[in-house]
Amino acid sequence: MRYLSAGESHGQALTAIIEGLPAGLKIHKENIDELLKRRQGGYGRGGRMAIEQDRVEFLSGLRGSLTLGSPLTLLIRNKDWENWQEIMAPGDGALLTERVVTKPRPGHADLPGALKYRQRDIRNILERASARETAVRVAVGAVAQELLAAFGIRVQGQVVAIGPVRGEASGKIMGRELYDNPFYCPDNNAAEAMREAVDQARKEGDSLGGVFQVIVEGVPPGLGSHVQWDRRLDGRLAQSLMSIPAIKGVEIGLGLEGAVLPGSQVHDEIHYSPERGFYHRTNHAGGLEGGITNGENIVIRAAMKPIPTLLSPLNSVDILSKEPFQAAVERSDVCAVPAAAIVGEAAVAWEIAVALLEKFGGDHLEEMLVNYNHYLEYLKKW
Ligand SMILES: Cc1cc2nc3c(=O)[nH]c(=O)nc-3n(C[C@H](O)[C@H](O)[C@H](O)COP(=O)(O)O)c2cc1C
Ligand SMILES: C=C(O[C@@H]1CC(C(=O)O)=C[C@@H](OP(=O)(O)O)[C@H]1O)C(=O)O
What we know:
The chain has helices at residues 29-40, 48-51, 81-88, 110-117, 123-129, 134-149, 191-203, 233-242, 337-360, 365-381, and strands at residues 2-6, 13-19, 57-60, 62-63, 66-67, 72-77, 154-162, 165-166, 210-217, 247-252, 270-273, 277-280, 288-289, 292-293, 298-304, 315-317, 324-326. By secondary structure, the protein is of the alpha+beta class. It has one domain (2-381): 4-Layer Sandwich (Chorismate synthase, AroC fold). The strands form 6 sheets. Strands 8-7-9-15-10 form a 5-stranded antiparallel beta sheet. Strands 1-2-6-3 form a 4-stranded antiparallel beta sheet, covered by helices on one side. It is globular.
């Protein structure tokens, strides 16, 4: 299974084509839209989110809500397009070329992108580099979650820290009450301090990053493989999280903390009971050993850098005049860690779904379920 996305931040729409989904999978549009709404939410978002109301439209691959096994095309319209038509016109008619962007923002793709693609208008870079693209990635991940749900596999992104404020991390998936917390953090006691941190950053024209974790429950042992570097599921999960704009670190299980502990405090001992089969009493490995799922929950964390667009801007140099400047900024998120947690959830769901298809693949969902149940039977007898 694979997908490609397309679309600029202020273009008409974002699209994605997923190829390789089994036929016969019911897609609940309301589930996709719910995840899209969550990605738009969370405390700390800026003015753009008041304009957009992300909803998915399916252009191909579905009949009567069931997948056909043919490519599934997803579309999310940009409402802001109305305000940008003259600047973003794909034809050569109305393009307003006097509004070129020549001032690269530190922390963005602006300068390296302009150098690489030989662009004198940085808009030709920033439109695609924008995290607006993560809207359609979330829709793709939500479709993956529809597949995972048929196998009892659940995925949830939870915020662990906003800037320096850490909440108590839960190792388990929570219900919808998680989203009553404006930071999607399981620790309600931390919410007040988190809010204060974001408000303070906003007041000072600054921004904040943070940490989120993604938990996967119900995953069978045996997804991913040790036999080749690019088949190791830990590496694939890290790549997919790292590809989210502003993610600068990924750790699995104990992660970096494990580096300073002796081995006796890190490795999870193996136990056996006839009812449970093989199991571990600890999960420091975060559900992955040798690039293969070991049957425990997958626990993976990602660190997000602070939003690079600051209201009190950083120094930079104009690409045409070569003069230094400090750009005035109109709107930006102050903190988007809760949104990134939802993007992370979608990214992890996608990778797990791909690994599930690799192991139990079939052209129809029923075929996959037969393979899956057969495997579970085999594990019980082993
Ligand atoms: C959900 C989300 C929202 C974001 N919102 C903004 C924003 O409003 N302003 C901004 O400057 N960067 C924002 N970013 C971060 C930039 O897109 C990102 O830092 C930039 O594209 C450079 O990529 P890099 O940080 O991975 O190097 C956001 C990122 C995510 C995941
Ligand atoms: C549009 C989204 O996020 C955007 C990501 C983003 C960036 O530079 O990455 C910059 C902002 O866009 P704008 O410049 O239009 O205000 C954010 O709003 C979104 O998450 O849907």
